[in-house]
Amino acid sequence: xxxxxxxxxxxxxxxxxxxxxxxxxxxxxxxxxxxxxxxxxxxxxxxxxxxxxxxxxxxxxxxxxxxxxxxxxxxxxxxxxxxxxxxxxxxxxxxxxxxxxxxxxxxxxxxxxxxxxxxxxxxxxxxxxxxxxxxxxxxxxxxxxxxxxxxxxxxxxxxxxxxxxxxxxxxxxxxxxxxxxxxxxxxxxxxxxxxxxxxxxxxxxxxxxxxxxxxxxxxxxxxxxxxxxxxxxxxxxxxxxxxxxxxxxxxxxxxxxxxxxxxxxxxxxxxxxxxxxxxxxxxxxxxxxxxxxxxxxx
Length: 298
Ligand SMILES: NC(=O)c1ccc[n+]([C@@H]2O[C@H](COP(=O)([O-])OP(=O)(O)OC[C@H]3O[C@@H](n4cnc5c(N)ncnc54)[C@H](OP(=O)(O)O)[C@@H]3O)[C@@H](O)[C@H]2O)c1
Description:
It contains 10 helices and 13 strands. By secondary structure, it is of the alpha/beta class. The protein has a domain at 6-158 and 195-221 and 262-279: NAD(P)-binding Rossmann-like Domain (Rossmann fold), CATH 3.40.50. The strands form 4 sheets. Strands 3-2-1-4-5-6-11 form a 7-stranded parallel sheet, with helices on both faces. Strands 7-10 form a two-stranded parallel ribbon. Strands 8-13 form a two-stranded parallel ribbon. Residues 10, 12-16, 34-37, 45-48, 68-72, 87, 91, 109, 111, 138, 157-160, 167 line the site of NADP nicotinamide-adenine-dinucleotide phosphate.
């Protein structure tokens, strides 16, 4: 199915940028928005303003809206619940209402943080039980969107990474530590599936083109502790494994509680697209190529 015109809300973020690249390579007519960080060709949009949202959607009349925009800083959300719910719930609700008026398809990005991390990895049918304000806000958004539009596609993902010099995603944080030869304390007991942002963008397009609805987990194949992922990144960047100091989450005194035994199962995704989820080795090869293509070498 051809997607028709697409709107990427949050095109200045890690996933939004990857989506814009993937949509462009697929010759899809795509418009993107930013909130605070303008990018070439992007339009300003604050999703907490339903007036702005309606005007933007009516102006572009997209057939599909990829809604990546969110307040993603988990610890900040814990201290600022009103702001978190305004951006992460009221914003998506406004987008879904504007989409309903045009019968546009909505693709929304959610998280494994809707689970408590007692019994991961989770499939799409497992009952959510978020521990943090961020997780609660994303679950509330999932439900609000599905109440408003029938054709919503909810993609749950986790531990996103990609080469982006403006991003503080985990792969970039580790890169900067390796460059400055700084040791890093990384949780040994937070399990999740590292997911290349570009892979999420490719699967988003594939699932949207297939007209899939409901919840689908889109993550990398390999489930591992964050410290193990850090070591894999350090190896890619040519640093010493000793730079990674594995520690229990408890010792980090993070503001928001984390789902420790997290992770998401990929069987549903694999069944729909007919191929295995991306292995970490393949994702890291692509990350290395992205880095070399951007001209950054250690
Ligand atoms: N990162 C992860 O590991 C992870 C894991 C699971 C799920 N997710 C979900 O995946 C989605 C994309 O994450 P990401 O890592 O790409 O996030 P990100 O890099 O932090 O980007 C967030 C995007 O949201 C935009 N935004 C923030 N506030 C806004 C507002 N009031 N109005 C309009 N746009 C606003 C930002 O615009 P500006 O930058 O221009 O301000 C940016 O484009 C999010 O929904 C997130 O919850 C992420």
